[in-house]
Amino acid sequence: MGHKLQHITDLAEILFAQNVEDVVVSPGSRNAPLIRAFYDRFGARCKSLVDERSAGYFALGQSLATKKPAVLISTSGTAVLNYAPAIAEAFYQKVPLLVITADRPAEWIGQQDNQAINQQAIYKNYIKASYSLPVDTSGREDLWLAHRLINEAFHTAVSASPGPVHINVPLREPLYENLPAVSTNISVIHKQKTVNTLSENSLLHETWKRAKSIMIVCGQLPPDKNLKEAIKNLSADSRLVLVAEPVSNFHEIATIANPEVTLNSKINYPEEAIPDLIIYFGGQVISKKIKLFLRGLQHSKFWFISPEEQIIDTFQNINSFIQAEPISVLNGLSVETTDTKNSFRNFWEKEVQNAVKLKANYTGNISYSDLLVFKTLSQDLPNDAIVFAGNSSVVRYLLYFDQKQRKYYSNRGVSGIDGCLSSAAGLASKLNEPVFAIVGDSSFVYDSNALWNRDFPENLKIILINNDGGGIFHLLKGPSEHEAFHPLVNAHHAVDFKKLTEAFGLDYQLCTSKSGLKPSIEKLVLGKQNEVLEIRTFNNGEPQITKDFFNYLNTNYGTEMDDT
Ligand SMILES: Cc1ncc(C[n+]2csc(CCOP(=O)(O)OP(=O)(O)O)c2C)c(N)n1
Ligand SMILES: [Mg+2]
Question: Does the predicted TM-score (pTM) go above 0.85?
Fold first, then answer.
């Protein structure tokens, strides 16, 4: 007979052997055997974060940096439910995570035992797979089952379409016994990756060859050098226009990197602006204008490339779908160049130039406002900075300006405001370079437990844009028109961010004026320590300057601008 907790020691051992790097533990009693096993194997790579919601997002940030699944370990009960927001984000952003939850044994569920809820398939709508380990592995067959499930869980998390996986671990008392040594017959199962390529006479190759105008649209993706190289090679094709926002991390090589400023929803585009072929891959696209434009194209060929089985038709026009890694498909396409200017590419290049001039004209001398803050940040953050963009209006404002060679991360899987700081902290904890997290005031308060971290990363610099509540709702036409808006939606507050920040032991500085912007950003950039820079804008939540900016773009669209 083996030991009843053999699978607990082996769980940590197998994941270590599979090159998992990081473990985030949230304290509890039911998970005591798990904590011991992982601490024995992973040592200082185990971090402790008490708030499971924050821990979940922190682990997601770590996985974004390493592209390996970080492990989460919780006790039973509501702790398990608090992982749910980060799991949903990881599921839709396709970030690998291994979520290990301790549980009561089955006989005690629903029996008014302490801290017990039904944890079976608890994340069922937002998880790639859910496993439950045997409660006792003293028998050979049970241990064999546990080994196989652990290996399968790992490989499911890191498959071509990665995501979160749940391993529920029922544990009987006593919980503080010594654990056994690693099994002599431990099984570490390896998996070989296959690569799909398209044959020369495939439908996409034929369509690609015949197309006169091609638009490649990239959604959100983590920075990827090889894919960038493949797309860069294709950009030499004179028929091609590349649409890539900062969160795609291809903005630096894009034809249209700021579609929200370049495109205009109020006009009908001429024939020469319409692509024959559109190829789309990656996650979410942020700009509403590019979505509207693409949804209006009824006669173009529309291809979607994804390693997943699911057909994602964000632009409501997909006619063909390739299940493969985008890089393997793109590398197979041949570049065509012509001496004469392609009218489609020419059209969009001119649109971009014109939008740049319009924007420069309007923002040349604007007063202190959210728009000016983002213009200045876009100019003054280091050219190659790593930025974690908060949700709500932050990520949208960044779209209006040139983001240089920066790398962009953001919780755009489901766009919650509840874990941006925690994810940024997880990301920074795995990188040596400074990481700049930019978040709104409501987002900061919501996730202030991100600062409740003994090992808060020194290289994380937080820029908090305090516009007194949800500025985004002012920019949307609907919400601000109803009298319920101010009391219920804008959510004004009187939070003292200096006190809140200092309560967690972080340095703080405040900017409240146009003249203070550049020096405070410079101080933040040059500072060696982590720090919170609060930039307070006094528009009483009313971003009139931003509204006027879009009116100006709409009114002047199509007007040839002089150079400024
Ligand atoms: C968890 C969660 N709850 C609610 C929302 C809806 N929501 C979107 S933006 C927003 C306001 C955010 O305000 P703030 O962080 O100050 O950013 P600002 O709009 O001012 O840029 C809210 C409540 C959300 N995205 N996520
Ligand atoms: Mg705000």
Answer: yes
